[in-house]
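Q: I'm teaching a short session on how sequence maps to structure, and I want students to see two examples side by side rather than one. Could you give me a first protein with its sequence written out and its structure tokens following it? Keep the formatting plain so it prints cleanly on a handout.
A: Of course. Example one:
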Amino acid sequence: MIEPKPAIEPQPSNAKGSGTAKKRRFGGTEAQIRSALKFYKTMAYLTGGMLLLLCLELIVRYGFGQYLLAGGTNAVTGQPFGFGFADAEPLGVLGAVNISVGVLIVHGWMYVVYLISNFRLWSLMRWPFSKLILLALGGVVPFLSFIVEKKFHAEVEAELAANPQASKRY
């Protein structure tokens, strides 16, 4: 049976205090980690942008009682309605496509893909579970995905540069 190896190799007992660094182990090759990092970065920006759009949509909906609609007919005048904001209650436009609901749905599915990118990067880097939680929070707290992405991108680059021998797995 193959024994799993820890993320950081333990130092020999006689090497303590000699100043040698612990050998870092990754869950994949450098190419796999860079690919996961690129995927994570892309999803962080897309999900963060959609989250900001969602926050704006919720402010308009609950603050001003408006939906973003496309198409349909104005309920009061009977004129065709193109694209824009209309009253939510009572319904101001009939037969329109509700773009506001579309923003909710798209952000929800993008967040699922964002979580997959988080898990992929986290597992390849062999980080503690707390970092996965912080990565996941980036998709639900406005502006946090941009901050967390910058921090973790720099951390991954630094770890790869500091441990070039650790990524050779095969």
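Q: Perfect. Now a second example for contrast.
A: Example two:
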Amino acid sequence: MDLQKQTAPPPAAELRASDADRDRVADILREALAEGRLTADEHAERVEGALAARTVGELEAFIRDLPAAHAPRPASPYTAPNRPTAGAIPVDPDDNVVAVFASAVRKGRWRAGRRIHAYAIFGSVEIDLAEALFEYQQVVIKAFSVFGSVEVRVPENVSLRGTGGGVLGNFEVAPLDAADPQAPVVFVDGWAVLGNVEARAKRGKVVADILDRVHRKADRSLRRHPGH
């Protein structure tokens, strides 16, 4: 009995908070500011506390009195395929991103091809698709890391899938399903040998829309109360 108590998982509130947990709380706080539920000072204070929080329970304390924290999260009715459609992706890459004892970056407003190869050998590669132009619905990223790192970031309104592994390294892809079946699907495949390959969503257009509403609300408030 004592052994069972010692090996039992900790309560959810005591679990270590992840970056995704902090992002969710930050989104709720921004929305509350836009709706007028929080003042600017309250928002700033809570965001600062959320960034410093170490556990899920500490994070939840900053949104416990906000309605959005208690709303059920709608499940996506669409599930993206685990593999691209046969024949949809060419054998040869549209783009090679190579870092050998160096770093290479693709980010900003750039056109993503159907196949991208990323090689990090004693170096780092960053592929940021948050603002990329998707000309195709299916995009494959072949990522190979040897004593290096490959980081892939995608918008939060696309689907993300991954297949790969690590040899004394880390291969981690956080699956994501878009609500729209027509949204792009990014497949990250590859290997990490004494290195790291990581792919996950990045706060993108949805959060930008929220921030735009915050700015508009702040501008209206300044116009109504000049000098305050």
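Q: What should students look for in example two?
A: Point them to this: Residues 34 and 218 are 8 Å apart (CA to CA). Also worth mentioning: The longest strand covers residues 138-146.
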